[in-house]
Amino acid sequence: MEGAIAVVAAENGPETGRGHTRWGLVLPILALPVLVLGFLIIGMFMWALSDEDDPRAGGPAKVPCAEALAFGGAERPAKAQPDRCTVQHGIDTGYAAVLRMPREDVRAWLRETYPDAPEIRTGSPCGALCLDVSHEDGLPASAEAHVVQVRVEYENAETALVRFSAFTM
Question: Which residue has the higher pLDDT, 93 or 7?
Fold first, then answer.
């Protein structure tokens, strides 16, 4: 009788009855949802890290340039073209404005805006011109910022790139 069972088993090939799983079919079916879920989680994580325009994420948010300049007690110069203006909230508040304006108007605008400020510096560590102003040394009472920093680079013979930042500490 044992010989008959062995012959039947040999004719049917390897045992394929109950208790034997065909892993070649099951593994790809199980792996697909795991891979899809893994890609979704990684994608959401990368999206969350790159969402820098979301003010809730602590990244800079776009604001009108008049708002950014007013935070530092300034007004937009007449011939200035705003490039981009942002605010960032966290422990402190910081506004930044990038303006392009005629090169010959920069010094007059800074002197008019901050008449009691220290002398405008020139030189390589800060660009063509720099000005740092706080409430202790000339920041107007209307400014909400504690410090204003202005960095000026000359793009060409006619145009200056003005980087204005005003922040609390």
Answer: 93
